[in-house]
Design goal:
The structure holds three protein chains of three kinds.
Chain A: H1 5-8, H2 14-21, E1 27-30, H3 35-39, E2 42-45, H4 51-64, H5 70-76, E3 100-101, E4 106-107, H6 132-135, H7 155-163, H8 168-175, H9 179-191, E5 201-203, H10 205-208, H11 213-226, E6 237-239, H12 246-251, E7 258-259, E8 263-264, H13 275-282, H14 292-304, H15 328-336, E9 342-346, H16 350-353, H17 357-365, E10 369-374, H18 383-386, E11 399-404, E12 413-416, E13 421-425, H19 438-453, H20 462-466, H21 488-496, E14 498-499, E15 518-519, E16 554-555, E17 583-586, E18 591-594, E19 672-673, E20 691-696, H22 712-715, E21 722-725, H23 727-733, E22 740-744, E23 749-756, E24 763-765, E25 768-770, E26 772-776, E27 797-798, E28 810-816
Parallel strand pairs in A: 1-2, 5-6, 9-10, 10-11, 20-26, 21-23
Antiparallel strand pairs in A: 3-4, 7-8, 12-13, 13-16, 14-15, 17-18, 19-27, 20-28, 22-23, 22-28, 24-25
Chain B: H1 2-8, E1 21-26, H2 35-44, E2 70-77, E3 88-95, H3 103-107, E4 113-115, E5 121-123, H4 134-137, E6 144-145, E7 157-158, H5 164-168, H6 174-178, E8 184-188, H7 189-205, E9 212-214, H8 222-225, E10 230-234, H9 251-277
Parallel strand pairs in B: 1-10
Antiparallel strand pairs in B: 1-8, 2-3, 4-5, 6-7, 9-10
Chain C: H1 19-43, H2 46-63, H3 66-73, H4 92-117, H5 123-130, H6 134-157, H7 162-165, H8 170-190, H9 197-225, H10 230-233, H11 238-260, H12 265-298, H13 301-307
Helix pairs in contact in C: 1-2, 1-3, 1-6, 1-8, 1-12, 2-4, 2-8, 4-5, 4-6, 6-8, 8-9, 8-12, 9-11, 9-12, 11-12
Chain lengths: 820, 280, 313
């Protein structure tokens, strides 16, 4: 669901294809009959934006038909935990949870907390932003529980109540999915889950790029926990990432609100004034995140070296503090308002690839200067003379620099993809002429800035001056023309970490200390480079007797291939079944063992009771597999960590032709809209924009086309921008295949060819036929092949947890003919 | 003298034959990613054929040609107003069939087209003089001549070489190497045929009633052109994929056609002799 | 909705251009003229033999552009000699190349020999030409000429272009057309004067026989081709085919010959010359229209499926 894996991850899709040959059933739930649907055993149509209704329907089915994996759910999830008295479910409040403040459009999540003994750390989930929040949840580690699950405020009963109306009839009404098909999915999924079998769910940006994307993934998490499909081989929820190494770029983040290793970024508005306060507020007593101070201090030591001392808070004050939402979309809005002066853009193409590309282009005109570093001249780099707005170069005040970058084979580096596996690759050839690796640009920019500011006593320059910046190799590789290329392995060694006293590489993150005696750039990656010449990401050893192949690359954390794999054994530590044996307790040896690295304290026996006092995972019992969670359990109900509710709830997309059939509340109460004149959003059921429009990619092109539209072999395969429409819609509009059409939203309009295909099918909702228009977004105004940009139609909006725009479900109008 | 002639005409002793190699393209595993098309063009440095959308599903290639040696077909099958469950989207990576009795090879007047030691059919680019006879001779519409004024090997016939250069180095052909789902399998032909039979059995057992092999020695399609060294597992009738039911080998009917021609000639000679011989 | 893959052709469109039908026409005419001349030379009266010489001249003249045309049509004309790299009669193209290569000097030699015998060619060349064994040249040339006239249709038929390949008779048709045009060329040459009416009558009889034969074979060809022949019988090429090849090339000469059969002297000469011109032009129209319609036919998916359908062969 939410993924077109065969088209967008064709190489990874070899594994589902092989699984299919070995008897697995592939189900594809998608608005379009795509190349994935073509090879799936079952294709299930769904209306864009209705995923939570579908998943909620499955959750309801599992609960109603008693298909949940009882031993697993009771022991490993928070089903038995009791939620506080003040909690009001969306079901009983028109679609809003307790704690909603309509004025600020946000939730105070205090009422979502477990009941139980008073909390030990301040609970302040909403103050923290971003992905990091999930890991540092201050939720209570010792909630009150009712193992019979009968307590009316037990998570299990709340869950049942919350999804009771998500019936097959409702699924059909909301999603447009025929009941018979929905039930088929439910049956296959439940039949294929339990002790003997597991099912996996794959998703991609089809889920994330919605105004409640994180909640869709949560819904899948709930379903998989109920079915016992987490922490077990063949189970899980696979996030298929949008680009090569995007997983890597969230681990070592390019995200504004995270420090490396999912540590929350210090924020001025949260009062993270001192390191001590930051660590107290961010760490939690229960679970592995209690070690956050070790990770943070080691990070500061890696960055500032000898300059980081206990006396100066290890340089904590040199880290700029967040003052608000600095996500891409918010920054672009600010840029459009002239509040951003300079812009360095690496490997990104907002003038084409980002939401509301027209506004993005206009924003670029407000800059004083821009540096674009890319493989080719992107639409972003060329906006000043080639944008469809037709601006005259003389009227553009932005000074634009275009620097040529190196492609992957022209540099060393690692890829970290969906499975958290680091794979190092070696440079094969020098980049041409002045092209250089991104690392080269960053390293030498830093070096020159340090030179420029050397001797400055200005406090704000001290962070820059104190940065350890020693990445040039001892001896440049004589094979290459470029002699001042920094060493990727040196960077990876710093990421791995070392003991400060002797500079010895650390074997893993268990050795990290909060006293400044260790340095580590990214704690979750520790272990990837445990000694000189021991780059584990280089490993390519197959293990014929272990299909986990633990000696191929390095998977974080600690080379674990499946997270929370303690859950692959029953509470007593024995495999749930011989077939699904993965990690188990070896009583004779007194330790956990198996095919993978156990994701659990190696010698903590299954029967170990939770300690009453102390911190960390000592507060968990020997059968609490979810070590990062405060309570050691998988969360069916999320008492904190999410800004838009503890349980996934169906809302309509910000733009929808339908009104919410489940709740009074139409759309996400906390999604961020940008109410600007140039960012109009059509109201629900707007007759001017009656069709759903969704954007996507095709195999032949890549994202905004920078890496594919300059390649004639790829361009000839998908040469022109098109819109996929159903024969029914085409007939209604008098459109023939290959006719020019114009697609409009309140933001903009674009022209493209029509591809009329039976693979697009209108769905029936309450007797009304709803059409979906499909738009790939690969074209632009540079490259061998050119065409209109689908992102011109997208609105600026932000999912509240991760700041992603909603472009998978919008509304549009459509007419035959070209723009004018 | 003979040696000098052989040198002038580039006539060499052929290498000793090896085990026959070929492709088994299993369309039931194809996800239509076109990696084969791109890998082929990259390895063989073939130019793009132009940038125009055909409107025929996701196929903007159309057909095989002088500079397109792999081509993925996209066949959309659906009943109008159906539920979507009766819908199929068939994908098939087409390629030169490397026929056991190859019409192109038989047609070639220069000997540019040869059978290699791997049993494949190969155009020697230094021999071909672009006579164009192989082009309409091929019953599958595979081989084609590049324009006389193009920038790529102008004026000669081209088609899949089954990566002869890679085979020489014991490497898998580029398309098979790049196929992520093993839809294109490369190997020794006997082994591939055994795999294909087993695979067909599996699919039929799963209820794929229309599945069939195309290009096996016992197929009717092999009646004239012989078994195909690049053969297929199809999920529908051959025609659906533009494949002839019984591809013709022109040689099979040539004698008869010469016969009629000769009869006319002889008849004319007789008439002529008779008329002139009557002497008034 | 096509039953195949969209409306894409099954087979490739032939890449050949106008040089090919032009060559077929001229080569066929040369061969026909040579054969006719040789028949006159060996079986005819002394008067008849007088037309043979002109026939050899016509044959030689018609052969002059043949090789250049054939070379010009190649994708790599600089490699024309690769045609003779091997001897492979299995390939009609190879057979044709060898035939043209051997027939051309033979026809020139025979013409030169005639020129020498009439005193037109003197000096050392004339002496050399007189050494040509005429009988052998006539026999060998006759066989090669018939091969040259006959292989072209077979060559086209030895493809998978439905219009060319479906019928068994294209080789025979082109042969008949070649002989008709060749004999017509001899007639035309003879009609310039000095030839008795009887000889002209005999020539027109032969021509008529060839045209009638051509007519019959064409009928068979069209019947055998059935729907496949539509690109020829309807559409763009129907006018050159019906009016040019059939009307002007066969019916009109037959009619003119019928009229000419009862005439003598100037009228006979005019009529037979007109008929010959028609035949020759019709022969070109036939090759050209079938050649070009073949290209259209190659794009006819249904015809291709019919051709390779297994049944009906």
């Amino acid at each position: 669901m939410g993924s077109n894996m065969a088209e967008n991850h064709p190489v990874g899709f070899r594994w589902p294809m092989q699984a299919k040959e070995r008897g697995a059933t592939i189900i594809h739930v998608d608005p379009r009959f795509s190349r994935t649907s073509a090879v799936a055993d079952l294709y299930v149509p769904i209306r864009p934006g209705s995923d939570i209704a579908f998943l909620g329907g499955l959750i309801n089915y599992v609960l109603n038909h008693d298909k949940w994996f009882k031993e697993y759910v009771i022991a490993y999830t928070n089903a038995s935990s009791i939620v506080g008295d003040d909690y009001v479910d969306a079901e009983d409040n028109g679609g809003l949870f307790s704690g909603y403040d309509p004025k600020s459009g946000s939730y105070d999540n205090a009422s979502w907390a477990y009941s139980g003994p008073p909390q030990e750390a301040k609970e302040d989930a909403s103050a923290h932003t971003g992905h990091g929040m999930e890991g540092t949840s201050p939720a209570k580690h010792r909630p009150a529980r009712d193992e019979t699950l009968q307590h009316p405020r037990s998570v299990f009963q709340i869950l049942k109540h919350h999804y009771a109306r998500y019936t097959p009839e409702m699924v059909e009404r909301v999603c447009g999915t025929p009941q018979s098909l929905f039930l088929q999915v439910a049956e296959v999924l439940t039949r294929n889950s339990g002790r003997e079998r597991t099912s996996a769910i794959c998703y991609a940006v089809g889920w994330t790029q919605q105004s409640y994307g994180a909640q869709i993934i949560r819904a899948a998490g709930i379903l998989q926990l109920l079915l016992g499909n987490i922490g077990r081989p063949g189970g899980g929820i696979m996030a298929l990432r949008g680009h090569a190494s995007i997983q890597g770029s969230t681990d070592v983040p390019t995200l504004f609100d995270l420090l490396p290793g999912y540590l929350p970024h210090p924020a001025a508005f949260k009062g993270d004034d001192t390191l001590e306060r930051y660590m107290r507020e961010s760490a939690v007593r229960g679970g592995y995140w209690s070690n956050l101070p070790k990770f943070m201090v080691s990070l500061l030591k890696a960055w500032y070296g000898d300059a980081a001392t206990a006396e100066n808070e290890f340089g904590y004050q040199w880290i700029p503090k967040l003052t608000g939402d600095h996500s891409h979309i918010s920054t672009s809005a600010a840029m459009a308002d002239g509040k951003v002066k300079g812009f360095v853009v690496f490997g990104q193409n907002p003038a084409n690839g980002s939401a509301h590309a027209g506004l993005q282009r206009r924003a670029l005109t407000q800059l004083d200067w821009m540096v674009a570093i890319d493989l080719y001249e992107t639409e972003t780099a060329a906006f000043w003379y080639a944008a469809p707005e037709g601006w005259k170069p003389a009227d553009i005040k932005t000074e634009v620099f275009l620097l040529p970058s190196a492609g992957p084979p022209e540099k060393d580096g690692t890829f970290t993809n969906t499975q958290r596996l680091l794979q190092f690759h070696d440079k094969a050839v020098d980049p041409p002429e002045d092209a250089r690796s991104d690392l080269w640009f960053l390293y030498h920019l830093g070096r020159r800035l340090k030179e420029l500011y050397s001797g400055s006593t200005n406090p704000r320059d001290q962070g820059l001056l104190n940065l350890t910046w020693d990445y040039l190799p001892g001896r440049p590789n004589p094979e290459w023309r470029i002699k001042d290329e920094p060493s990727d392995e040196k960077v990876l060694m710093e990421i791995n970490g070392y003991t400060v006293a002797d500079g010895k590489q650390l074997p893993d993150f268990e050795r990290l200390k909060a006293d400044g005696s260790t340095a580590c750039g990214v704690w979750i990656y520790s272990g990837v480079f445990p000694g000189p010449e021991k780059n584990m990401a280089r490993r390519r050893t197959r293990s014929p007797d272990n299909d986990v192949n633990p000696e191929w690359g390095f998977a974080w954390p600690g080379n674990r291939r499946i997270l929370y794999n303690r859950a692959s054994a029953d509470p007593a530590g024995q495999p749930w079944s011989e077939r699904k044996k993965y990690v188990w307790w070896d009583a004779a040896a007194g330790k956990w063992t198996g095919r993978d690295v156990p994701d659990f304290p190696a010698k903590k026996a299954p029967g170990t009771p939770a300690k009453e006092r102390g911190s960390g995972i000592d507060l968990h019992s020997g059968s609490d597999p979810f070590t990062l969670k405060a309570d050691g359990r998988g969360w069916l109900f999320a008492p904190s960590g999410l800004k838009d509710g503890p349980l996934p709830t169906h809302y309509e997309p910000l733009e929808s032709p339908l009104s919410n059939a489940l709740y009074e509340r139409q759309d996400s109460p906390v999604a961020k809209r940008f109410p600007r004149k140039d960012n109009a959003i059509s109201p629900p059921g707007d007759p001017g924009y009656p069709y759903i429009v969704t954007t996507y990619r095709v195999t032949e092109q890549y994202t905004s086309g920078v890496m594919s539209r300059w390649n004639s072999w790829l361009s000839e395969l998908m040469p022109e921008m098109f819109a996929e429409i159903s024969p029914e819609l085409a007939r209604e509009k008098g459109i023939a295949n290959l006719d020019w059409i114009t697609v409009s939203t309140p933001r903009n309009q674009i022209e493209c060819k029509a591809l009329v295909t039976q693979r697009m099918r209108p769905l029936r909702h309450d007797g009304r036929l709803i059409h979906t228009v499909g738009l790939p977004y690969h074209w632009g105004y540079k490259g061998l092949v050119k065409g209109a940009m689908a992102n011109d139609l997208v609105a600026l909006s932000e999912e509240p947890n991760v700041y992603i725009q909603e472009d998978k479900a919008m509304t549009c109008s459509l007419r035959k003919g070209r723009l004018r | 003298m003979i040696d000098a002639y052989r040198r002038m005409m580039n006539i060499e002793q052929p290498p000793a034959p090896k085990a026959a190699r070929g492709f088994f393209t299993d369309t039931s595993l194809c996800i239509g990613c076109k990696a084969c098309e791109v890998a082929c063009k990259q390895w063989n440095q073939l130019p793009a054929d132009g940038f125009a959308m055909t409107g025929n599903s996701y196929d903007n290639t159309g057909h095989l040609g002088a500079t397109t040696w792999r081509h993925v077909q996209f066949i959309e099958q659906a009943k109008a107003n159906g539920s979507g469950q009766d819908q199929r989207w068939l994908m098939m990576s087409d390629v030169c069939k490397h026929c056991a009795n190859a019409a192109c090879l038989e047609a070639c007047p220069t000997g540019a087209l040869v059978r290699t030691e791997y049993g494949t059919v190969y155009v020697q680019q230094d021999i071909c003089n672009g006579c164009g006879f192989c082009v309409p001779a091929c019953p599958f519409g595979v081989i084609d001549r590049t324009p006389k004024t193009g920038h790529f090997e102008a004026g000669t016939a081209h088609k899949c070489t089954l990566c002869y250069d890679r085979l020489k180095d014991d490497m898998t052909p580029a398309c098979a190497k790049s196929c992520p789902t093993a839809s294109i399998q490369f190997g020794e032909i006997d082994e591939l045929r055994a795999n294909a039979r087993r695979r067909l059995g599996e699919l039929q057992a799963r209820g794929e009633s229309k599945a069939r092999l195309y290009g096996m020695p016992d197929g009717q399609e092999a009646a004239e052109v012989g078994p195909l060294h690049a053969f297929f597992l199809l999920l529908d009738e051959p025609k659906t994929y533009n494949l002839p039911e019984v591809p013709r080998l022109p040689r099979k009917t040539m004698a008869e056609r010469y016969g009629w021609s000769a009869a006319v000639g002889i008849g004319f000679a007789l008439v002529g002799a008779l008329v002139f011989g009557r002497r008034g | 909705m096509a039953e195949g893959y969209y409306d894409y052709p099954v087979v490739k469109r032939p890449v050949w251009t106008w040089e090919v039908p032009a060559y077929f026409w001229l080569g066929g005419m040369a061969a026909g003229a040579y054969v006719t001349a040789s028949l006159a030379q060996n079986f005819g009266s002394a008067d008849d033999r007088r037309v043979a010489g002109g026939g050899y001249y016509v044959a030689a003249a018609a052969l002059v552009p043949c090789a250049p045309l054939l070379v010009a049509d190649l994708g790599r004309p600089d490699r024309f000699h690769h045609m003779l790299r091997i001897f492979k009669p299995l390939s009609p193209m190879n057979l044709g190349a060898w035939t043209l290569t051997s027939f051309t000097p033979l026809a020139f030699a025979r013409a030169a020999s005639h020129a020498a015998s009439t005193g037109l060619l003197r000096g050392p060349l004339g002496a050399l030409a007189r050494l040509v064994p005429t009988r052998l040249a006539e026999l060998a040339g006759g066989v090669l000429g018939l091969t040259l006239a006959g292989y072209s249709g077979v060559l086209l038929a030895a493809t998978n272009v439905p219009l060319w390949a479906r019928s068994k008779l294209l080789g025979g048709l082109f042969m008949a057309s070649a002989l008709a045009s060749g004999s017509a060329a001899v007639t035309l040459q003879a009609g310039r004067g000095g030839v008795p009416d009887a000889t002209l009558h005999r020539l027109t009889t032969i021509e008529s026989a060839a045209s009638a034969g051509e007519m019959a074979i064409l009928t068979g060809y069209l019947v055998q081709s059935g729907k496949t022949a539509r690109p020829l019988t309807t559409g763009r090429f129907s006018a050159p085919f019906w009016l040019g090849a059939v009307g002007a090339g066969m019916l009109l000469p037959l009619l003119l010959h019928r009229v000419a059969g009862r005439r003598h002297g100037r009228a006979l000469r005019s009529l037979s010359s007109a008929a010959a011109l028609c035949t020759i032009a019709g022969s070109l129209a036939l090759r050209w229209s079938i050649f070009e319609a073949g290209k259209v036919s190659s794009e006819d998916q249904a015809a291709s499926f019919e051709l390779s359908g297994g049944a009906g062969r």
